[in-house]
Structures are given as structure tokens and as C-alpha cells.
Amino acid sequence: MSGSFLRNVLLKGLALFLLFDLAFVAVNPGSLGRVSLYNHVFPGRPRFPFGEDPAQSYNLSLSNLDAMFASLVISAAPKPADEFRVLVVGDSSSWGILLRPAETLAGQLESAGLNLCGKTVRVYNLGYPTISLTKDLMVLDYAMRFQPDLIIWPITLEAFPLDSQLTSPIVANNANRVDALIARYQLPLNPADPALVHPSFWDQTLIGQRRSLADLFRLQMYGVLWSATGIDQSYPVDYAHAQTDLVSDVTYHGMQPPTLDESKLAFSVLEAGLRAAGKTPVLLINEPILVSTGKNSDLRYNFYYPRWAYDQWRQMMDQKAASQGWDYLDLWKLVPADQFTNSAIHVTPAGEALVTGSVENTILQQSCP
Amino acid sequence: MTLAYILVFVIIAAALGVATRRRGRLPLLLAISALAVYALQPALPVRGLDFWLPTLTLGLTVLGWVLTTPRQERLWRVNWPGMAILGGIVLVLGLTRYLGISLPLTASNPPQMQEILVFLAILCAAGFLLWRFTKPGKLILSVAFIIVILIFLLLKVPALSNWASQVLRGWNGQSVSLASPLDLRWLGFSYIAFRLLHTFRDRQSGRLPAVSLSEYVVYVIFFPALSAGPIDRIERFIGDLRHPLSLTSEDYGEAGKRLAVGLFKKFVIADTLGLVALNATNATQVHTSGWAWILLYAYAFQIYFDFSGYTDIAIGLGRLLGIKLPENFKAPYLKPNLTQFWNNWHMTLTQWFRTYYFNPVTRALRSGKKKLSITSIVFLTQMSTMVLIGLWHGVSWNFVAWGVWHGLGLFFHNRWSEWTKGRFAMLPMYWQKVLNAGGVLLTFHFVAIGWVFFALPSLSISGQFLQTLAGLK
What we know:
Largest sheet of chain B: none
Distance between the termini of chain B: 39 Å
Shape of chain B: globular
Mean pLDDT of chain B: 93
Radius of gyration of chain A: 23 Å
Number of strands of chain B: 0
Number of helices of chain A: 12
Number of domains of chain A: 1
Structural class of chain B: mainly alpha
Order of helices and strands of chain A: HHHEHHEEHEHHHHEHEH
Helix content of chain B: over 70%
CATH superfamily of chain A: SGNH hydrolase
Largest interface: A-B, 19 and 20 residues
Strand order of the largest sheet of chain A: 2-3-1-4-5-6
Order of helices and strands of chain B: HHHHHHHHHHHHHHHHHHH
Mean pLDDT of chain A: 94
Oligomer: heterodimer
Number of domains of chain B: 2
Strand content of chain B: under 5%
Structural class of chain A: alpha/beta
Number of strands of chain A: 6
Strand content of chain A: 5-15%
Helix content of chain A: 25-40%
Number of helices of chain B: 19
Largest sheet of chain A: 6 strands, mixed
CATH architecture of chain A: 3-Layer(aba) Sandwich
């Protein structure tokens, strides 16, 4: 092995690496996420990949929407003719923090074994644990290709403030999708918002994409432990329960009482979601919140909401639902305070059963196409 | 060893290889290896311990040299530079406490300078007394041997480690209730201890070559092999060290290849398999036999690629420094029987045990007054050797079980080989190949099942997992 041989090996290796890097940018394999071992080697997941402690939950958070959908059981096969397909979108309460897949709203509805219009009701969990209507819109827009017959969209006031629409990592890292939604539905959001991550040339190279590619790979690897254990979330024996003693602050996203400024809320994003659903019926649900009885509970309902802001938002929702004919179910006070877990919007399996009971009736009242 | 440290070591090794072709190689290797002892030591919750343990490593090594060196070879004029370098490093690292900035050379802030000076003074006094008044006789080397074994036990027996942690925490005024065996993670001590023991035994048997302090210390704490071996023999190592360094393009090519292969094995294959490999948590969560086997296979390959990857990296780094470290793995999972597996898995450890335990014990049993049958001798020596190798990894019932599993396996293979000797030689080549392939599969699965005891922390979890593997749960 001569010195010139070693030098040539190094130079050729470097040249090949650069060439491959440029080819990667040119081809821009954005659809790489659709290549998945789930539903082929491993069973599809019942909810989106999400996890902040992969070693315990055998799950991880990533931003590649293609890969996230490809890992779901809904991507396993085309919709059968005898299936009445229900999609549940929404935030962490839909996804089911601290709940096993069968204990979530989607899971409990699925277990109910409903039949509608002569078809079997199959319910799919498309919730994702960040609170933003824009995130919900992005998921819903993507999910329309799965031909839903009904969309259940649990919402809460915290998903509405315009100032927090783009801060969710999954939104921020899908700038191209968000840009398209802003343009298509004329949303009052700024495509140049610094929160949105528009990849530079270098970000699109193999080196720039190394984290995303590693996440894709790790998602496939965790398929082994998901299949082996059925675990997709860590369930701590002990956790900090939702706050019931609250601060005396009554501002809400910079807004002062007594008036909640509607122009600072993303009703237009909600309406865009309804438009994106097209002819598919959408059931909007005001999800249950913890109504505290601790310190300062005369000022606030819980960690998230001053009473004045939440009450006004509920009134707005009632009025809009009535005036625009939305199918709307207000379940804000349905679940007793002792059935909340680690957040003012996360409930126990028993709490979720109460929600399921209410939603089940509404589903069965759907008119057949 | 993290990727960052490996890259730093590659740069240092390459620079040393280029810069020290003629002179200065030994002192530079000594300084870098001594610094690496501190830099690689993980942070520990007992205050100051992550400074004291590396300092003890250097101290024990220096005392080990004094004890193994004949009095006429303990020459001050030859060895003072080595002592000055080691003492200087301890003091300079101690002074970094007063810089006000955190350097990556020590895991946490070094202790007060007066404490370091007192410690060095005690060490120097002990060293002087040994230097002045001892010679490397059988008794003192046996005492040194026992002391190293006792330290080893203190680190490896959880109850003793916990007790030691409580004592150290008490001295430091830290909460005794937070004491844990993990408080005493002493980087590379398992390897350092075996190198020291090797020199003690070879001095006793008269095989140890005369070496200077710097050579001895570089052998014991050679930075590429510090944390994961291999365990070289000092006479071979010194031969390379004394050989003038003249690296050829072939050396660079071989070093680069071993480094690239090692990095790929460790950081791509092993770390990926680590995501899904068997561990104490998933062992109790897996619900079917098929998936349990997948987790076990992942562990079996993870441990191989992790360990052999580190060995490749160590060999590559050594090659850049002109030291040809011995191989530790030669495709062990492709061997058709357990005996060959152990001749090719962690080879330097098994050679160590063969040299210093298996062979002497076998000889003693054969020549003993009470005549034992060959079968009994084979059983006793193989079983005890494998249990000791298990205990080297950690003193727990699981490692004993792992040792017993392999001891039994080796014993039965030995008896099987005796019984079948010549019987299969008549078979056509095709059938011999089939038998060989069957042997590879059988051996791999025997080893893989053994890993259950190695990977899991208790016999009850191991038992549960074995039931899942067998489809009994």
C-alpha cells in the first residue's frame, strides 16, 4: 500500500461523498418518509410517533409527516368498502398522554364496535401532542387522502391564539406545508415568521439532513420494540398532577380582561380546517378542562385559562357554531376534577369514557351519505 | 469513550507518530496516557473522587513498577524524568482548579492543592520505602497481588462498593443515604488490574523483562487500550515501544482501516442495535417468544460489535503510535464449537486466564498427591476458570450463572470431542460441512442464551426471560 494509493483513496472518497451530497439535494428525496417497515414488517402504530424519552417509550418525535403517517395503521391498506372511517384529530388529549392506545377517545370509540349506515365504524387516532389549530389543519389536510366519512376534532382555547400557531416543532419544521396552507386558505399567518424553519441549501444536503434521516431510521428501529412490547409511551407510576392552586395572573396571551380580542384568535384556521374537510362532516368538540377549586380558582379555571377569557371564547364558539351550522359539542365541564392527570386537559381512562359516551351518541346520529 | 475523545486521540496519535520519529516518543506517550486517565474518568457524585481514582491509578502503577523491578534496575538517573512527568501532571491538573474555567481534562473540579500535596507526599514516602527497603521477592509480590484483588473486589462487589461509598461520603460530609455502588466507577481498573497482576506473576516466575518506570507506566495505562483493552503482554509491548518508530504508508492504511471499521462497528452497528437490544426493562415487557429471540439476537450482536469495534479503534490508534496491539476477536460467532468460540472471543482475557489460572491449576491438579480423573480435572478447571471470568465482569449471581453456563458448555464439548474423535472424519465432505454449519448455529445460540445472564441484572428476571424465550409464558 503506497502513499499515493492512500492519497487517491482519500480524494476519491471525498469526491464521491460530495457528489452523493449534491445528488441528494438535487433529487430531494422528500418522500423518503413514505418508505416504512410499519404495516409490512411491524404492525402499524395506533397513534403518531411521539416521545421525549425514547429509551423508555420506544417512540420518538419527528417532523416528517410522511413518515409519521406511514407508521400508522391507517396506512396499512386502502379503505375497505364496508368501513365507516372516523378520524380523530386534535392535541395531546386526543393522542392520549398517560393513556394506552385502547383508552384514548379513538380507542374507546373503536372498542364500542359501532355500526353506521350498514358499515363497521373504524376509528383512527390522528391526535398529536402540541396545541395549535395550524398543526391540526396540517394533519387534517394530509389525512383527507384516507377518505374519512367523519372527522372528530377536539379543540380547546389554547389552540387558538395566533401568536402560538407556528411555535409547535412539527409546524415550524414543515414550513413548506404551512406556506401552502397559508396561501390556499388565506390564513392570517406570516410565511416569513422566524418560527418557521425554511431549509437552506446546506440544510438540504445529506449532512444537513443527518438528524432527520437518523430520526427516520430510529423510528423504524423502534418498530422492533413496539412490536415486541406493544408500548409506545412511558407510563410513570408517579407524576406531577395538574395544578389546582393557581397564580393570580388574569392576562391571556397578552390580552387583558374584560374583552377577548377575536382578531387575535385563529378562527380562520378552524374555518380552513372545515373547508379542507370538504363534504366530510366534522364534529367539533370543546374538550373537557379541569375546573380547579384551589387557590385563585375564582380568577382562573386552571393553569391555562383565566375564567373571563375562557368564558368569552365559549360564547364565541357557541355563536359561530349556531350561525355557521357547525356540528359542535361543548364538553368543557363533563369530566370531574379528580379525573384529570398531569395537565388541565389530560384525563384518566374513566374521564375519557365519559367523553366517549357523549361522542358515541353524536356519531350514531350522523346521516348516511 | 465518546466519539469526540476518539477523534481527539486519532489526531494526537497521528501527530505523535509524525513528530516523534526519533526522540521524545516515550515521555510524550507517558504524558498523553496519564492525561487520558483523568480525561476519560467519568464524573462521580462523591466529591473529588473522579480526581483521586485516576491519581490512584498512577500511584498504583508507579508502586507496581517499584515492586517488580530488581533493586539494581531502580536507577534514579534513568527514571526521574518519568516521575517528574507524572508528578507534574498531577500538580498541573490540580492547579487547574484555580483557573476559574472548566477544562475537559478532569471530570470535575480537582480537590484543594494542599490535599493533593499531602496525597503525593504519602505516595512518595511509600514509594521511597519500597524502593529503598524491598526487592521483588515472592512474599511482597504476593501481598501486592492480594491488594489488587481486594481493590478489585471492593469495586465489583455491590455491597462493598456501597460501603466504601458511604465511608467516602462520610469523610466528605456528603449524604450517606445517597451512597450507591455506581459511585465507585473507576475507569479501566479491570484492565489495569490484570496488567499489574500479569507483571507481578511474571516477576515471580522470572519472565518479566527489565523496564524503566516510563515504559512500565505506558504499558499499564496506554491510552488506546485503557478503557476496553486489549490486555497486551508487557514483553511484547515493550518490544514495539523500543523499536524505532518508522511508520510506513501501510501502517497508515492499516490504522485508517481499523479505525474506520471500528468506528462503524461501534457507532453505527452497535449503537443502532443498542436501541432494541435486550435489557432489564424490555425483558419483562416482551410478550412473545419470537420477539424475545429478536431482542436477544440484537444484544448478542450489539455486545460483539461494541466490544470488537472498540478493539479495532484501539488497534488502529496503537498502529499510528507504532504499537501493534494484539487481536481480541476473530469472528467468534462463526466458530463451530464453544472451545473455538472462547479461543476467538476476548482473546487477550482468555489467554490471561489460561496463563495465570487454568494452566497452573491443571498442572497442580495433575501432579497433586490426590489423583483425580482427567474428567474431574477438566470439569474443575473449566468450570472455575469460566466462573472467575464471569466474576471479572462483576460480582453477582448472574455473572456466576453465566460462568457456570459456559463452564458446563466447555466441559460437555470437551467430553463430546473426546467421544467423537475420529468418528466424523470418515464422513463425506458435504456432511462435514453440514455438521460444521450446525455447530456454528448451535454454538451461537448457546452463547446467545448465556448472554441472558450477562445482560440482565438478576436471576429472577433472567429466569422470566428464559421462560419467554422458551414460549412458556
